[in-house]
């Protein structure tokens, strides 16, 4: 039953698409029909798959490194007043610079290869991850911290263990929502990087196909990219639910 | 009524506590005046007063969570109104939290013995969310006992429970804490009469401690028994008088 609804939606969308192609008598280089896109999938499947692997690797590596960087920044902000005073305004200001504008620079510095795309993805997802985790770390239940203070006698040498056993664990649901946002926007970073300058990847393939008026191939690449993005989000969502089974509790607790 | 074995008959009596604090003010609003309390092992003191009278402030000062209190670091176990169980940790891990935070090797055998004592032995790996409110408070009591400290501070620990579960928990707490010094704050005269040896009122602004009752040994008492009725009446009237003069 759960897959019936999305299946119906998909069929409806495909039908609408085909109707638009018929109704407006659009030429295939403006809007290819679903059938011709499907044909592009079959005929150019090997190319699509090779390029998709490149893009997925960029997204995944960017996600991992960006999440690690974001988590490190959040912990640093929590641990040090100096970091809060100097780093926090800088991090927030860095978000005012559009990543699009940085993309050519990153390609210049990190080359046409995979590195510039990973850096781009990291830049995009660093902020949602660090902001979410930092928020979570600051909102530890005061009762738990009181309990921990009494248990350790307020001794300084136990502060790291309180951070690990209580603050960090309590912040994991917030970190998970940051990760989910990151998973949703990470493909943007990778594809921007590929548009600006690349020799491989789905974004690169789309640019090439566009230049050669292979609109059906462009659509196929776009659909594949969307599928990858949805799959990535679903995987992260599933994983965080599996690993944090207690967080559903907070909705029902009074 | 069960007869409790007296802890004073031990060969080496544990030390009594003399607690004192300098009072506390939030900004220029003095909540709590200077106070002092003597407390012996095996003795339970209840501090009674309405919400917001400074009870929790007093308790937090002893626990070192607010400044101006005695230095009792490492001698205190803390039990709050909320069970404060960590939702991601199993029952056993929750009970071992103190040892983990101090970097000690957790005593699994003792934790399991305590779980057994408190009727939680069959669910050591359950998460707190899988337990009823009463069982969660039992787990909180087990964690408090696991700390094995001479002074136990309780901040309205059973007020969130239904009345039958509360009575059950009060009896269980009396039985398991009988050799500790216990200081509890409560707004419930029945709870105070059931569990305490001495009952203080915390009244006025800034709040002052005032001895209201010393009860004969033999806790947990039955608050419904005829000889408890005058005590309950006295506490009830004192609280009511206090509330009317405050209003």
Strand content of chain B: 15-25%
Helix content of chain A: over 70%
* CATH-defined topology of chain A: MetI-like fold
Helix and strand sequence of chain A: HHHHHHHHHHH
Subunit organisation of the chains: heterodimer
- List the strand order in the largest sheet of chain B: 6-7-8-5-9-10
Proportion of strand residues of chain A: under 5%
In short:
The complex is a heterodimer of chains A (254) and B (247). Chain A has 254 residues and is mainly α.
Q: Which short descriptors sum up this protein?
A:
heterodimer; A: 254 residues; mainly alpha; MetI-like fold; 11 helices; 82% helix; 0% strand; disordered C terminus; B: 247 residues; alpha/beta; 6-stranded mixed β-sheet; 8 helices; 20% strand; globular; disordered N terminus
Write a structural description.
The complex is a heterodimer of chains A (254) and B (247). The radius of gyration of chain A is 23 Å and the shape is elongated. With 254 residues, chain A is mostly helical. Chain A is 82% helix and 0% strand. The longest helix of chain A is centred in the last third of the chain and has 38 residues, at 159-196. Chain A is built from eleven helices and no strands. In chain A, helix 2 crosses helix 10 and helix 3 runs antiparallel to helix 8 (159-196). In chain B, 34% of the residues lie in helices and 20% in strands. Chain B has helices at 55-63, 91-95, 97-101, 108-117, 133-147, 163-176, 189-195, 229-246, and strands spanning 17-21, 24-26, 29-32, 35-39, 44-48, 76-79, 151-155, 181-186, 198-203, 208-214. Chain B has a six-stranded mixed sheet, sandwiched between helices. Chain B has a two-stranded antiparallel ribbon with strand order 1-4. Mean pLDDT of chain B is 87; it is low at 1-11. Classes of the chains: A mainly alpha (254), B alpha/beta (247). Chains A and B meet through helix 7 and helix 8 of A and strand 6 and helix 3 of B.
């Amino acid at each position: 039953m759960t897959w019936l609804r999305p299946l119906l939606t998909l069929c409806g969308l495909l039908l609408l698409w085909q109707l638009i192609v018929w109704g407006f008598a659009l030429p295939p280089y403006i809007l290819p029909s679903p059938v011709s896109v499907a044909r592009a999938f079959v005929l150019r499947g090997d190319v699509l798959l090779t390029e998709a692997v490149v893009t997925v690797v960029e997204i995944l590596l960017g996600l991992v490194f960006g999440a690690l960087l974001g988590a490190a920044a959040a912990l640093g902000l929590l641990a040090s007043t100096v970091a809060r005073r100097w780093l926090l305004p800088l991090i927030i200001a860095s978000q005012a610079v559009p990543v699009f504008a940085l993309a050519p620079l990153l390609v210049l510095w990190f080359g046409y290869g995979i590195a510039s795309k990973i850096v781009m993805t990291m830049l995009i997802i660093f902020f949602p991850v660090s902001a979410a985790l930092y928020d979570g770390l600051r909102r530890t239940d005061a009762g738990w911290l009181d309990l921990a203070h009494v248990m350790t006698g307020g001794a300084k040498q136990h502060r790291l263990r309180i951070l690990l056993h209580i603050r960090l664990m309590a912040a994991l649901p917030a970190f998970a929502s940051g990760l989910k946002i990151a998973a949703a926007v990470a493909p943007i970073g990778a594809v921007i990087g590929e548009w600006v300058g690349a020799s491989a990847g789905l974004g690169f393939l789309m640019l090439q196909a566009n230049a050669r008026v292979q609109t059906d191939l462009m659509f196929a690449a776009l659909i594949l990219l969307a599928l990858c993005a949805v799959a990535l989000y679903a995987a992260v969502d599933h994983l965080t639910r599996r690993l944090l089974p207690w967080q559903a509790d907070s909705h029902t607790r009074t | 009524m069960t007869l409790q074995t007296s802890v004073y008959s031990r060969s080496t009596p544990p030390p009594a506590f003399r607690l004192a604090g300098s009072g506390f003010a939030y900004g220029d609003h003095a909540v709590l005046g200077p106070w002092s309390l003597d407390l012996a092992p095996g003795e339970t003191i209840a501090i009674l007063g309405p919400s917001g009278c400074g009870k929790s402030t007093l308790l937090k000062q002893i626990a070192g969570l607010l400044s101006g209190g005695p230095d009792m670091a490492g001698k205190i176990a803390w039990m709050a109104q909320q069970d404060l169980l960590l939702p991601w940790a199993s029952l056993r891990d929750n009970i071992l939290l103190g040892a983990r935070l101090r970097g000690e090797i957790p005593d699994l055998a003792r934790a399991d013995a305590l779980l057994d004592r408190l009727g939680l032995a069959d669910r050591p790996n359950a998460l707190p969310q899988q337990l009823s409110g009463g069982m969660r408070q039992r787990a909180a009591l087990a964690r408090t006992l696991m700390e094995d400290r001479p002074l136990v501070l309780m901040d309205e620990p059973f007020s969130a429970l239904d009345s039958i579960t509360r009575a059950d928990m009060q009896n269980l707490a009396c039985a398991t804490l009988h050799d500790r010094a216990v200081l509890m704050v409560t707004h419930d005269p029945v709870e105070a009469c059931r569990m305490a040896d001495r009952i203080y009122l915390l009244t006025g602004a800034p709040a002052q401690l005032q001895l209201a009752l010393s009860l004969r040994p033999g806790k947990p008492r039955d608050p419904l028994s005829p000889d408890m009725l005058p005590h309950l009446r006295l506490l009830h009237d004192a609280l009511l008088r206090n509330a009317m003069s405050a209003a």
